[in-house]
Amino acid sequence: MQNILVIGFNTRNVVCSASRAGYTVCSIDAFCDLDLQECAYASAFLECKTVQELHQLEASRIKAQMAEFGLEFDAIVPGSGLETLDHNEFSCPVLASSPDAMQKASDKLYLAKRLEALGISHPICYSPEELDAIEYPVMIKPVSGGGGIFNRVARNKQELLAILEELYSLNPELTEQALIVQEFLEGVPSSVSLLSTKNEALSVAVNEQLIGIPWLSRLPFAYCGNITPFRTNKAKEMEGLAEELVIEFKLLGSNGVDFLVSKKGPVVLEINPRFQGSLDTVEKAMNINLFEAHAGCFRGELPEKPEAKCFAARGVIYSDRELFIDRKLMDLILREKSADIPSQGTVVEPDGPLTSLFACASTREEAILSLKRGVNRIKAFIEN
To answer: Looking at the DSSP assignment, which residues form a beta bridge with residue 266?
Structure first.
């Protein structure tokens, strides 16, 4: 196996991991960031901007783009937004869980019912039709996907109705049927990154999630990155629950389970049945190539459990305004320990992701401090 196609909304981390592992990688991606282009043999734009468009993307269009690369592909790896890609439409193997398994794991309402049956702690879930049964406060979020940008908290029925109206005006795809209302809980957002074959699962790392960090984003629940490892006395319990779930849902390869570490213990929030945003920090901290390990899972192979070598942090900077990427700004970003680097001449929308910065250190505090310094340099340049 040598020639790989990675396709998804944002594939940079997967493409660069595969490239480091020695594969010839092509990408179909919505951003085609500068560093993705440098890692990839070739890249093309994914001509879809919404989840609905992604789900309606026809295999014939993907095949046409594949043909334009001029390679015979040995495997396809679907990323974010393409979890339910029909494997039968392609002549080469698709290195992913079955579309049915991925769809069930991604659906937060279905997951809540399974967690209830398994006796695993999770937030109480309501559908928006159950207005009179809801106990407040609650979190409103898309049933699948979203990256936290559409997440809202309602503290009474009036706020809930206003939020439902607001979300529909922001994105007409966010109908009541496309949203879930969850019990709002306090705790530390975290995740477990796993590898799994048909018969067994291995927890590779427990990660702290950076959600709605004010110095990275104005959005209160936006995904802003990770710190690996997350040191908590609940780590073993989280790993055990995550391994149970990926086997239960028949997931293969690299997958993640999101948790909230509350006063009562770990609470399962959702399953990400694909490569996760934590890929970079897991690889840096645990000294592992996740793409190579993912491919091994489809041969029935799991690596040895890795040990953390450092604290690795990733911070995703969101722009607070419409921002034109000129040469000076791009050069500044390139001087930092950065990734997801926008190409010169592109425009970042308000509250859109600008770039990612990284730090590795012997302590969590040092890693965060290093991230903040880099973020401040970029923000000061933009202000001036």
So the answer is: 261
